[in-house]
Design a protein that fits this description.
alpha/beta; Rossmann fold
């Protein structure tokens, strides 16, 4: 299979070792970030999910509401074709997550693919710019309370508006590891052990967070074009701009740069936990080159640069995991693929057999 390697023994971009990987990524990151961001101003839609192109609703799904410290949170649940309750996968959204439907439902046929493979699918709805983390505080700027201004549209105009993550702090890690699995277990009979989790872009690192810190719940984690080295030079600044652009969120409300919480969500830092847990991983990033099916437009050009950033971070994580002796992983680096749903749907289709063999 093209571009796909098992156990992390190949594809080391720096030749060998953790220190070499650090040097390579630090030299590359700022240049790639500039290449991705500057030609199109500061619009960085691709860093957390491609701009929404259409709205799709799958009537086979059900709305599943769960109370939380953030208020009632909706997930969309799709039942496995054979009716089992022990094979469960969480599909996480990107940075521009909407409050009505999850991007996987809007933009792809992932639910049908997974349910046909006898996998129950849980798609949490919401969490724009959240990294599915427990934030330190609500997102505000200059101490001005959220809701002071009711901005319209997206981006910086929303910085002082109220809403999710602003009126109260995001607590997504708690929701995904406690509130949601308990409700799925009690109300639908779903297993809360040996689940799978798939994340793309923003949520690629989130999927690995869940597997690292909740190994009984998640035996399988996949990152598609994820930000897997948040300590990489220039990365925090890139994420700061992306969060401001995607809903007007303040990264400092998530965690300060030196906080332990920032390290908590950085896969490069917590990689030893994944190795110790022996979690089955699927790690993917495209080359940044468009396929013949990608129209050459501003969105594609932007997606090329941002996928290149994702590839740098993913290769850096690979070098780190290799240096630790991590083995239980499949890497897939397709020769084409930009930061968009077409790429992620293709990777989802590719990982299903591996995920199916490692959950439930």
């Amino acid at each position: 299979m093209r571009g796909l390697t098992v156990s992390g023994a190949q594809e080391n971009p720096a030749g060998a070792g953790d220190s070499a990987g650090r040097v390579w990524t630090r030299r590359s990151a700022l240049g790639l970030a500039a290449a991705a961001l500057l030609p199109l101003g500061v619009s960085v839609a691709g860093l957390g999910g491609a701009p929404t192109a259409r709205a799709a609703f799958d009537p086979s799904g059900m709305d599943f509401w769960v109370d939380s410290s953030m208020g009632p949170i909706k997930s969309r649940v799709f039942r496995a074709a054979d009716g089992n309750t022990n094979r469960v996968v969480y599909a996480l959204d990107g940075m521009r997550a909407r409050d009505d439907l999850n991007g996987w439902e809007i933009e792809t046929n992932a639910a049908q693919t997974l349910t046909t493979a006898n996998i129950n699918v849980v798609m949490p709805v919401g969490g724009m710019s959240s990294f599915y983390a427990d934030w330190t505080s609500p997102s505000t700027f200059l101490g001005i309370p959220a809701g002071t201004l009711s901005g319209t549209g997206s981006g910086a105009a929303q910085a002082l508006a109220g809403g999710p993550g602003k009126t109260s702090a995001y607590k997504w890690e708690t929701f995904l590891s406690q509130d949601l699995p308990a409700a799925l277990r009690d109300r639908l009979g779903f297993s809360s052990t040996r689940n799978g989790v798939v994340g793309l872009s923003m949520s690629g690192s989130s999927a690995l967070v869940l597997a690292a810190y909740y190994p009984a719940q998640f035996s399988y984690a996949a990152s598609l074009s994820g930000a897997l080295n948040l300590s990489m030079s220039g990365m925090r600044d890139a994420v700061r701009v992306a969060m401001l652009d995607a809903g007007g969120y303040n990264i400092d409300a998530l965690a300060k740069a030196k906080d332990a919480k920032w390290q908590h969500i950085d896969p490069y830092t917590f990689a030893p936990k994944l190795k110790a847990n022996n979690t089955r991983l699927f790690i993917s990033a495209g080359s940044g080159l468009p396929s013949s099916a990608d129209a050459i437009n501003a969105s594609t050009i932007q997606g090329m640069g941002i996928e290149a950033i994702a590839l740098v971070g993913t290769k850096s994580f690979q070098a780190r995991f290799n240096s630790l002796g991590g083995k239980n992983v499949v890497y897939d680096f397709p020769p084409v693929g930009v930061h968009n749903w077409k790429n992620w749907e293709s990777e989802m289709n590719r990982l299903v057999p591996d995920m199916s063999a490692n959950i439930g």
